[in-house]
Amino acid sequence: MAPPRRKNIFRLAPPPPMTIYVRRGYGRVLAEEYAALKVKRAALVEDKIEAHSQGDLRENFGFKAAKDAIRAVDRKMDDLDRFSRRNTFIEVDPATWLTKPTDFVQLGHVIQIEKEDAGTKRKHRFKFLVATYGETATDAESDLECLPHNSPLAAALLGLAIGRPAQVQLPAGPAILTVLSIRNPTQAELDRLLAPIKAPEMDGEE
Q: Is the pTM of this model over 0.90?
């Protein structure tokens, strides 16, 4: 029996499909990004054809550069297509975050938490807006930071009630999380924190 090929031995497994909460309009932004990549690829193909017509390909640096650029765009298009097909996207309106019930941590809540490292017993306090996919901004006025709902910390916090410590396993190690407060954000906080929607950076997911 032939041994497996080297490239399959070291290839990382693709990430599992996820349900990703995004802001309204995210699907349109993904479609626009893919369309822009198609336009860019068509222009690069024209450059490649033009460079090909200039003679000896062995020393034709324009031809090689166009080929490399086309491959890079193809990889981005493939990654974006896989990202779109693999995952389920649910679009939400941040306006609904202003009046959510605050019995337990949900997407759109502003929370203050205490994190105790299980090993060192050191305690740290943080304040987050549990936000949609890809949001990472910090509000300079209040030190409020976006915490994407699909991050390991947010996944451990969602569903917790105030004052009930929970032992969780985080990438950095085991920790005890305690929610100290839950409230709704203000419109001013959302205005400062939520930037225009952008397509994700595609850097070779698989």
A: no
